[in-house]
Design a protein that fits this description.
The structure is a single chain. The chain is built from 4 helices and 19 strands. The chain has about 300 residues and is mainly beta. The protein has 2 domains: about 130 residues, Diaminopimelate Epimerase, Chain A, domain 1 (Roll), CATH 3.10.310.10; about 160 residues, Diaminopimelate Epimerase, Chain A, domain 1 (Roll). The radius of gyration is 19 Å and the shape is globular. It starts with a strand and ends with a strand.
């Protein structure tokens, strides 16, 4: 089975993009994993399937599905959304500068700017445990500003070093406990503050948080270092994909968590390992706005195994 694809990246978060506007490919989880495999396939953090708007939908231009490199389907991807708008314009599927796209659980608005960047209206964040979902019953909670921080016990044998438990000014080292702010950006995030993202033990702590039993559908584990009120550094261990060079929804969730704790201003530059993202949030029910790059790497086709 031959499949045409476009390889794209946004701040180093890389994607295989498929045009399914004229008909669904109906790929299996095994085939998604093959496409994403960096040795035998194309290689990608996620697979983006560009699809026609849902039937009888008003003012919606497209829909799309997102699959992690393990074959699982997820709700949302911020860096992928930026690549989405660049793809549909490059392929001549639309001439609009502003398009509306239906994801699994929300409608997002995408805008290509004059400087070649792409701005995405990510919608309003949600904080209720049920929105992730997150089973918070019985956990100790610390109120910090407008944010609730949950003390989450992880692996008994995993020491946690360098984690900010109270605030940026107080460095408490606590074994087996991480203090997380939970945020849904259409997909689930648990954000913790660290003193240095370069030395944070993302490879060990990330999977433990991401697969914690308190998160029935898993969670993206964010590690944020605050540089100043307008700048942060971020690493994210994504469920189903592992650590990526950038995570757009993770950047939004981290900034929102920092703003609610009173640590950040409303406009924040996020430095990921793959590049810079700009996040703006006025608070409350306002949408989170994310701006960043989206780049086509190459186009080709690949023979993939049958289901």
């Amino acid at each position: 089975m031959k499949v045409k694809f476009t390889k794209m990246q946004g701040a180093g978060n890389d994607f295989v993009v498929l045009d399914e506007t004229r008909g669904l490919l109906n790929l299996s989880a095994v085939q998604y994993r093959y496409l994403a495999d960096r040795h035998f396939g194309v290689g990608a953090d996620q697979i983006l399937s560009v699809r026609a708007a849902p039937a009888n939908s008003k003012d919606i231009d497209f829909s799309y599905a997102i699959h992690n490199n393990d074959g699982s389907e997820v709700e949302h991807c911020g860096n992928g959304a930026r690549c989405f708008v660049r793809f549909v314009r490059d392929q001549g599927l639309t001439t609009k500068n502003v398009i509306k796209v239906q994801t699994m659980n929300r409608v997002i608005e995408l805008r290509e700017t004059k400087d070649g960047q792409v701005t995405v209206d990510m919608g309003a964040p949600q904080f209720e445990p049920s929105s992730l979902p997150f089973e918070s019953e019985g956990l100790e909670v610390e109120q910090k500003g407008l944010a609730q921080l949950y003390l989450l016990k992880i692996d008994e044998n995993m020491p946690i070093a360098g984690v900010f438990i109270a605030s940026v000014a107080i460095k408490n080292i606590v074994k087996n406990i991480v203090n997380v702010a939970i945020v849904s950006m259409g997909n689930p995030h648990a954000v913790q503050l660290v003193d240095d993202v370069d030395t944070a033990d993302v490879e060990q702590i990330g999977p433990l948080v991401s697969k914690h039993t308190r998160f029935p559908r898993g969670v993206n584990a964010g590690f944020m270092q605050i540089v100043n009120r307008g700048q942060v550094k971020l690493r994210v261990y994504e469920r189903g994909a592992g650590e990526t060079l950038a995570c757009g929804t993770g950047a939004c969730a981290a900034v929102v968590a920092g703003i609610r704790q009173g640590l950040l201003d409303s406009s924040v530059q996020v430095a990921t390992r793959g590049g810079l993202l700009q996040i703006d949030w006025a608070g409350g029910d306002a949408s989170v706005m994310m701006t960043g790059p989206a780049t086509k790497v190459f186009e080709s086709e690949i023979e993939i195994p049958e289901k």
